[in-house]
TrEMBL record:
NCBIfam families: PRK10658.1. This is Alpha-xylosidase. Residues 56-217 form the Glycoside hydrolase family 31 N-terminal domain. The keyword Hydrolase applies. It comes from the Bacteria. Keywords: Glycosidase, Hydrolase. Belongs to the glycosyl hydrolase 31 family. It comes from Streptomyces coeruleofuscus. The gene is yicI_2. The lineage of its organism: Bacteria, Bacillati, Actinomycetota, Actinomycetes, Kitasatosporales. It holds the Pfam family Glyco_hydro_31_2nd. SUPFAM superfamilies: (Trans)glycosidases (SSF51445), Galactose mutarotase-like (SSF74650), Glycosyl hydrolase domain (SSF51011), Putative glucosidase YicI, C-terminal domain (SSF117125). Residues 584-669 form the Glycosyl hydrolase family 31 C-terminal domain.
């Protein structure tokens, strides 16, 4: 929200007051509180008829400093509140030397000169990261009586801002006005399904505004060189989160707001949907599933979209008996005959025609208006109402309906909607409607995730969710919402996913082929490549099916080849998923996250890193031409073995069988032995693909166990010493192989009980070793 009229004046009807100096300070051992008048006080009379801001400063964890600025403190405290996790046993340090006050939280400090004009400096070992200056802390009131608390933090020359949730506007947020306010606006507008009041910059820090309601940002816009954020409230609380790297910022931020849960291994396979308003029944489902099997395209999950239920009755959680007369039998057959998991669509609305409406109304489980009436409208479903998840009994009631479905054989839920939440209502727990508008999705997704965790066991729960706010990363997976079916929409979807990844979300997907409309074969095939090189992969549309043979035979080949490629990459991908759960590092990473010291990477939004070591540049053109940037070093094309020297830009043309997919210099990419499914024993028979190994370096490759279906884990250490490459195995359950990409090699000294065979392939030299081998040494003889 903008308050000023240019640099000198305020907008008509707005009066603003800013902290001018420190009147006094209260110091505790690990925090301090500043009292700041909004004018320079030189005599006692200046203390009359003038506001005094209370500014509390503390640290919940190392590298994180919190600021809470309050005008009037007498307001009743009404939820909801974000659940924040503090570091157990941690305490910051406060020091005072003369007028200089400092709060130290590891390498991050807050410095205040209490004898100088108002200024909060956030520093890293003495270097100023950002500051709240003359207009950095304050409030504004309007002639209509509305009160806003606001803050400004300075941007340095060349400093770029990212994040603020899944936003489809330009990737770099400088120059944008952004409202953190849930909306169902598709992917081609400034509105967003997933609004997160957190941003990070390329200077080694991020900022989280701890307010679940509407937060208005002016990013280098109203005040050039400042990020301004404001809330309609008497107080404003925010945390400055130190890095120094972007990965470190996300690590600290997700430690504060919650780590992403680790999705089950099977969820990384290909999902196929009925699509939305298409005509389908059990025979359609069987035809789709058989069609995928007949064409040798492995399928992991089948999804039933809205019309698995009867029209006008969403959500009554009951299969349409005319279309699916035997749901239990159908689900059992899908599992037994095709080894599929099953997903079904739900939302948090109860249509009036559903018998559950009367039941929920009778028990008081629906959100009400101030006069006691149930809140209803006809948008989406006729006469629909909204489940009040602030009522524990309503949550248990809703969960019971889902448990009936898991008992039938449903494995996961697509939790659609959760954005269009009214503010003219009364919540069971007395929550502030404005604050609940954004936060509702948290209660909704949490309720569903808990059901799946209980029904399927630890590590087996996964959603396909559209809406989210801060902390929503704890309930993956999220998908990008309603996009069109053209190359531009494909690119805007990627921008949204990269922004969400820089907002603490580890896993993200999108509708392969686009949702609205029908993609051309060219768009479909390129989107398939992109989708199967994403965290999670789903074929889904609105009015048209997304089975590959509806486009052309080449689409079938592309779908088959890239699905099987993803399955071979599962030992690599699942380790990247573990990193997301452990540190909050997303699987799909904006280039700035992986290469913060390369300025050329700071604005890139048409390519990304998939895990630590794979660069992906989707093709967004019908002619197959793609421009992409390669950072420093010798990169290797994963599919062709071609070596590419960076840094620099490249323009290339690709057929539908390939795209820029490059392995990082010195990387070791584990390939699983099977391509039939996402979940198998990844360590058994694994191939380690070694790319341009760096002399003197050791690369540790961890192969995780796949989870519920058992399997082994293993660790490999690959070292190059001159012309010798040595691989040491720990815990390998069977035979394994090493592919020296682009290099000629012959086996050298190996484990005494082992033997190896060498084979020259199109990509390089393949060295196969027997079970139980703990060490392989190869001599490079050329390249």
């Amino acid at each position: 929200m903008k308050f000023t009229d240019g640099y000198w004046m305020m907008r008509e009807g707005v009066q603003a007051s800013y902290a001018a100096e420190v009147a006094d300070v209260r110091v505790d051992e690990d925090r301090f509180t500043l009292h700041a008048p909004v004018r320079h006080v030189t005599r006692r009379g200046h203390t009359l008829n003038s506001p005094l801001l209370t500014v509390e400063c503390w640290s919940p964890a190392e590298g994180v400093i919190g600021i809470r600025s309050t005008h009037h403190a007498g307001a009743a405290e009404r939820g909801p509140e974000f659940a924040l996790h503090t570091e157990p046993g941690y305490a910051a340090r406060v020091t005072r030397e003369g007028s200089l006050l400092e709060l130290r939280a590891g390498k991050l400090s807050l410095r205040v000169d209490t004898a100088a004009p108002w200024r909060l400096d956030f520093t890293e070992n003495g270097r100023v990261l950002t500051s709240a200056k003359a207009r950095g802390t304050g409030f504004a009131v309007t002639d209509g009586g509305r009160h806003y608390s606001l803050a400004q933090l300075a941007l340095d020359v060349g400093e770029l801002v990212y994040g603020l949730g899944e936003r489809f506007t330009p990737f770099v947020k400088n120059g944008q006005s952004v409202d953190i306010w849930q909306a169902d606006g598709g992917t081609a507008s400034e509105q967003a399904y997933k609004n997160v009041p957190f941003h990070l910059t390329n200077r080694g820090y991020g900022v989280f505004v701890n307010h679940p309601g509407k937060v208005s940002y002016e990013v280098d816009s109203e005040a050039v060189g400042q990020v301004q954020f404001s809330v309609e409230d008497q107080s404003l609380e925010y945390f400055v989160v130190y890095g120094p790297t972007p990965k470190d910022v996300l690590d600290r931020y997700t430690a504060l707001t919650g780590r992403p849960a680790l999705p089950p291994a099977w969820s990384f396979g290909l999902w196929l949907s009925t699509s939305f308003t298409t005509s389908y029944d059990e025979e359609t489902v069987n035809r789709f599933v058989r069609g995928m099997a007949d064409r040798d395209i492995p399928l992991g999950v089948f999804h039933f979209d809205c019309f698995w239920m009867r029209e006008y009755q969403w959500c009554d959680f009951t299969w349409d008996p005319e279309v699916f007369p035997d749901p239990e039998g159908m689900l059992r057959r899908l599992k037994e005959e095709h080894d599929l998991r099953v997903s079904v669509w739900i939302n948090p609305y109860i249509a009036q025609k559903s018998a559950l409406f009367a039941e929920a109304k009778r028990h008081g489980y629906l959100v009400r208006k101030a006069n006691g009436d149930v809140w209803q409208w006809d948008l989406w479903q006729a006469g629909m109402a909204l489940v009040d998840f602030t009522d524990p009994d309503a949550r248990r009631w809703y969960a019971s309906k889902l448990r009936a479905l898991t008992a039938q054989g449903v494995d996961c839920f697509k939790t659609d909607f959760g954005e269009r939440i009214p503010t003219d209502v009364v919540w069971h727990d007395g929550s502030d409607p404005e604050r609940m508008h954004n936060y509702y999705t948290q209660l909704y997704n949490e309720t569903v995730f808990e059901v799946l965790s209980e029904a399927r066991g630890a590590g087996e729960a996964v959603l396909f969710a559209r809406s989210a706010t801060a902390g929503g990363q704890r309930f993956p997976v999220h998908w990008g919402g309603d996009c069109e079916s053209h190359f531009g929409a494909m690119a805007e979807s990627l921008r949204g996913g990269l922004s969400l990844g820089l907002s603490g979300f580890g896993f993200w997907s999108h509708d392969i082929g686009g949702f609205e409309g029908t993609p051309t074969p060219e768009v479909f095939k390129r989107w398939v490549q992109f989708g199967l090189l994403s965290s999670h992969s789903r074929l889904h549309g609105s009015k048209s099916y997304r089975v590959p043979w509806d486009y052309d035979e080449e689409a079938v080949e592309v779908s088959r080849d890239f699905t099987r490629l993803k399955h071979r990459l599962m030992p690599y991908l699942f380790r990247a998923a573990q990193q997301a759960a452990e540190r909050g590092t997303p699987m799909m990473r904006a280039m700035v996250l992986e290469f913060p010291d390369d300025p050329a990477c700071h604005t890139l939004d048409r390519q990304y890193m998939l895990g630590d070591d794979l660069l992906v540049a989707p093709v967004f053109s019908a002619d197959g031409v793609v421009d992409y940037y390669v950072p420093d070093g010798i990169w290797t094309h994963l599919l062709s073995g071609e070596q590419i020297h960076g840094p620099g830009w490249r323009r290339e043309r690709y057929g539908y069988d390939s795209l820029p997919l490059l392995a990082r210099p010195g990387s070791v990419i584990p390939y699983g032995a099977s391509d039939d499914a996402a979940e198998y024993d990844w360590a058994h028979g694994v191939t380690l693909r070694v790319h341009a190994p760096v002399d003197g370096a050791t690369v540790v490759t961890r192969i995780p166990a796949p989870g519920a279906r058992g399997g082994s884990s293993a660790v490999f250490r690959t070292t190059r010493d001159g012309d010798t490459v040595t691989v040491e195995a720990e815990g390998a359950p069977g035979p394994w192989q090493v592919l020296l990409v682009g290099a000629l090699a012959e086996p050298g000294g190996m484990g005494s009980s082992a033997s190896a065979s060498a084979e020259r392939t199109a990509l390089g030299t393949l060295l196969a070793v027997s079970a139980g081998t703990a060490r392989l040494t190869a001599l490079l003889t050329g390249s």
